[in-house]
Amino acid sequence: MTDWAAVATDLAEEFATRASDIDREGRFPVENIERMKEVGYLTSVVPTELGGGGADLATFAECQQIIAAGCASTALATNMHLFGVGAAAEGWHMGDRASEPILQMVASGVVVGGSLTDAATGLNVRSSSTPARPVEGGYVISGRKSFCSLAPVLQFFWGTAADTETGQLLLFGLPRDTEGLNFKDTWDTMAMRGTGSWDVIFEDVFVPATAVQRGLDPNLPPVWDSAQERIFSWFSTSVAAVYLGIARAASAFAYDYVSNRTVTGASLPMSRQPAQIASAADIELTLRPAEAMLRDAIRRRADGELLEPSDIQALKYTAVNAANAAVDRCVRMVGGHGIFRKLPLERYYRDVRAGQFHPPSNDVAIETIGKAALGIDAGAEPRWPSD
Ligand SMILES: Cc1cc2nc3c(=O)[nH]c(=O)nc-3n(C[C@H](O)[C@H](O)[C@H](O)COP(=O)(O)OP(=O)(O)OC[C@H]3O[C@@H](n4cnc5c(N)ncnc54)[C@H](O)[C@@H]3O)c2cc1C
């Protein structure tokens, strides 16, 4: 069995040498994706029986945390390929064989990515403003989606659109070379600049009915079953791991910096100053509970527990916000030199800010967690009182 954490450590060391240039140029790290393919990392979560690496969620999250410390953009972009594949693989192990063709496709080297985000309206996992018009044998889709990480290299695309007759949310998959399907480089951002999260343009794209995986009626109450739990757990735990990885890279940098800086006239390094000791303690007291929560959630799932939406959202919320706060404190530790672009800290500071935007966003998570704590059904109407 491959030691995936060791593979991830080697990749992270190599990617760290390029991360600054990738960020500075805002370019997609094609060479990192090629290296990941060479060492089998992009098939690491596919079942060994289907030609993959057999990594489980605990291993995957650990590896993503390690890789994010080297190059957060590479980790996040490939997360969009790996989390869905991993969730499908876990389902396969539990007897759900419907995704076997996708897993075989990935095992053969295909990179998958997708966009559930509508360019005009953002993300609502229950509906889409991209229209899908029913025609004989399938649908015709025109519209624009955004935030499609991995767009420069993906070979198979997942997306959502709404059936114009029934309003159902359709999840569909298409090969990249489908007629009318185009990817446009719109990704000029302050954070995660190497993720290639381009726009996706649909110009009368024919989507055969066989390419539609499922339809979801937005008027029916949300269903929470093991399939839903799997996909949200794999997504949220790995996103949490990526952002905690950035925070750990920042804390390692800050600890090293103050330990090796002795200002003129001082008898001891900066790390001996009470303020620096307090900052280091604050960082640990911020990150350790988040890391423990992540490990706990993964362990509970491994023990057979079906996590609740509020469990999953709480761990993602805690991780990305802890990571954010910890990196802020790292900048305070390092001081003014921390904003120089020749040091990696300002990149960590920008990249870590993107964590709050992945679903569930902070605002959405707060509603879910608060309502669950108060015993209020997530679908209860009215959603908010009007008086
Ligand atoms: C680096 C990066 C990579 C990404 N990669 C992908 C990808 O590969 N595929 C993909 O599909 N998406 C991807 N996303 C997109 C992400 O999943 C979101 O869809 C995207 O950030 C759009 O969010 P928004 O904040 O613009 O959404 P909006 O829906 O416009 O929300 C705007 C604000 O309103 C708040 N809000 C919205 N709805 C509610 C609500 N119901 N209750 C309370 N508050 C609400 C939100 O919290 C947010 O603060 C990526 C995002 C980032 C940052």
Polypeptide structure, described:
With 387 residues, this protein is an alpha+beta fold. It folds into three domains: 4-110, Butyryl-Coa Dehydrogenase, subunit A, domain 1, CATH 1.10.540.10; 113-216, Butyryl-CoA Dehydrogenase, subunit A, domain 2 (Beta Barrel); 226-373, Butyryl-CoA Dehydrogenase, subunit A, domain 3, CATH 1.20.140.10. Helix content is 47%, strand content 15%. It has helices at residues 4-25, 30-38, 57-70, 72-93, 100-107, 226-259, 274-302, 309-334, 345-351, 362-373; strands at residues 112-115, 117-118, 131-135, 138-148, 156-163, 169-175, 181-184, 198-208, 212-216. Strands 1, 2, 3, 4, 5, 6, 7, 8 and 9 form a nine-stranded mixed β-sheet that branches. The structure holds flavin-adenine dinucleotide. The site of flavin-adenine dinucleotide has 23 residues, from helix 4, strand 1, strand 4 and helix 10. Flavin-adenine dinucleotide is lined by residues 76, 80, 113-117, 122-123, 147-149, 192, 195, 197, 354, 357-359, 361, 363-364, 367.
